[in-house]
Design goal:
Length: 561
């Protein structure tokens, strides 16, 4: 097991740290081996599913590395889920065992009637009535390396983890992650970041996520460095903790960097020892400000999906780009952009029935060639075979070829840099034009008084496509007339939101993605929310407050849109 090999190399050096404990490389390996023998002692067989519902902590990595050593598949359950969503995540995994940290006792016990099947339940981190305490049993087992006479080493291609999609729309899916995939992620990012024993990674991303749980941890440990684990992101504590823990690296995702830029000035950044930050989702309009204000020597932006068949890396530090493929590697990376029909939600095909490649700076869906061999280009799918089939595109450029659909719209410039544009489902069509919610949100975010902006499409009776709507978090000095003038300078009229919703906050996933589905479902109906809603009356050049009367007029198609 890699953990044992690292322990032999780095011994007493710190591996994982949080406020409660520090595990050296040797201690981490010993604890993982105890969990492996615990699993063997309770007849956990290769292929058996064990769900893990626990917060970021050193034990989290020890649990899943130990269990996967004996061939178990560990489902890393999102700790923010409750009710039906939590029950769904557990049920689609179909576990034989579940390990629940005491911090999530109430959330788990509440779904008892929704649970399918008979699952052995184990408490972690404290007692839970009716559960066995897993830590109490660990002392019975040796921490020495697990030998092949006790248990064969799992095949590289066998399943190791189930990692769930973020579920911004609909219920989350469980993506299959093999041992090979974990090794690829860890070693590839260790090389990209040039991790070394002197490094210390600050990781406030959830460990049930592929970036926070595998990439940030494995890449750092492989280089002999240590990982500081935090239970969540706090903009107010971020820099003081970076400095206090002597961190040289940190992992970001989504809007984390923008939250730091929007926060109050902090004297701590000047004292940090960071040499690099790595992540995905850093917008071009934030990149330069973030790098300069916080004195970040290097930003390594990348593009990847847990289940995806390819990755992209922006090694040159091109602001806003998600990467490019060097000419000498193009033969190894099957990545293309194909023209996309927003109305049907599928790639466009020509008269010959094949997909059409995009030209320079033309927006299309990114797809990756599937090549299920021991190397790149693998698509391992989901626990749900129907969901797996939906992601596969066949007969793309030649009869019989297969490609992975990312569901992401991108463009590629003349230099070969890829730029993320939007999620395919978030781009909508209005007035015969395609509207990128990402582009509109970035334009709105530049208006004085706007703290946060989420853009989505809503249906309007009698109108084709979907009208733009934006949920905004604003300051006390926000002015609707200023926003109107600002958007007039930044966006064509068809892309300017027809409706605004002023919110106290916008609900986000744990990876900082806005939950648009519920906002779009409520639309502009004032009866469904206490938030103030406004309609852009373009004939009068003013925003009107939407009340029951105005809502009825819009529904009755009495206003010109």
């Amino acid at each position: 097991m890699l953990i044992d090999d690292l322990a032999d190399r780095f011994e007493a050096a710190p591996a994982l740290l949080d406020e409660s404990e520090t595990l050296s490389f040797r201690a981490l390996a010993q604890r993982a081996n105890r969990y492996a023998r615990w699993a063997l002692g309770h007849r956990v067989k290769p292929g058996d599913i064990v769900c893990l519902l626990a917060p970021n902590c050193p034990d989290y990595l020890a649990i899943w590395t130990g269990l996967t050593r004996v061939g178990a598949v560990v489902a890393l359950v999102n700790t923010n889920l409750v009710g039906e969503s939590l029950a769904h995540a557990v049920n689609i995994a179909g576990p034989q065992h579940i390990i629940v940290d005491a911090a999530y006792r109430d959330a788990f016990l509440s779904i008892g009637p929704l649970m399918a099947g008979d699952v052995q339940r184990w408490a972690h981190g404290g007692p839970i009535a009716g559960f066995l305490r897993i830590e109490d049993q660990l002392a019975k087992f040796s921490g020495d390396r697990v030998g092949t006479d006790e248990c064969p080493v799992p095949a590289l291609m066998s399943r190791a983890l189930l990692i769930y999609t973020s579920g911004t729309t609909g219920m989350p899916k469980a993506a299959i992650v093999s041992h090979l995939r974990i090794m690829q992620w860890g070693h590839w990012f260790a090389g990209m970041m040039d991790t070394r024993p002197s490094d210390r990674m600050y990781n406030c991303l959830p460990m049930y996520h592929s970036v926070g749980g595998v990439v940030a941890t494995a890449a750092t440990l492989i280089g002999g460095g240590s990982v500081v684990l935090r239970r969540g992101f706090s903009a107010s504590r971020f820099w003081s903790e970076i400095v206090a823990w002597d961190c040289t690296l940190f992992q970001y995702i989504g809007e984390l960097c923008r939250y730091l830029v929007d926060g109050p000035p902090d004297p701590q950044p000047a004292a940090h020892k960071l040499r690099l930050c790595c992540g995905n989702g850093l917008r071009g309009n934030v990149w330069g400000v973030f790098k300069q204000r916080f004195n970040i020597p290097r930003i390594l932006e990348f593009y990847a999906a847990t289940e995806g068949s390819f990755s992209l890396y922006n090694c040159e530090g091109e602001p806003g780009a998600i990467g490019r493929i060097p000419s000498f590697l193009r033969h190894r990376f099957g990545v293309e952009l194909v023209r996309f029909d927003v109305e049907t939600g599928t790639p466009l095909r020509g008269d010959d029935g094949l997909c059409i490649r995009c030209g320079t700076d033309e927006i299309g869906e990114a797809i990756g060639r599937i090549d299920n061999v021991e190397g790149g280009g693998r698509f391992e799918g989901y626990s749900d075979t129907a969901a797996t089939r939906k992601k596969i595109l066949k007969n793309v450029f030649v009869e019989g070829d297969t490609w992975f659909r990312t569901g992401d719209l991108m463009r590629k410039d003349r230099r070969g840099y890829f730029f993320f544009v939007d999620r395919a489902g978030d781009t909508f069509r209005w007035k015969g034009e395609n509207v990128s919610s990402q582009e509109v949100a970035e334009a709105i975010a530049g208006c004085p008084g706007v703290v946060d902006a989420v853009v989505y499409g809503v249906t309007v009776p009698g109108a084709e496509g979907r009208a733009g709507m934006s949920a905004l978090v604003v300051t006390a000095g926000f002015d609707l007339d200023v926003l109107r003038r600002h958007l007039g300078e930044k966006l064509p009229e068809y892309a300017q939101p027809l409706f605004l919703r002023l919110c106290a906050s916008v609900e986000k996933t744990s990876t900082f993605k806005p939950r648009k589905q519920s906002l779009a479902a409520e639309g502009y109906d004032p009866a469904l929310t206490t938030d103030r809603i406004f309609f852009d009356d373009r004939r009068r050049q003013t925003f009107l407050a939407v009340d029951a009367v105005l809502h009825s007029r819009i529904q009755a198609r009495q206003l010109r849109l």
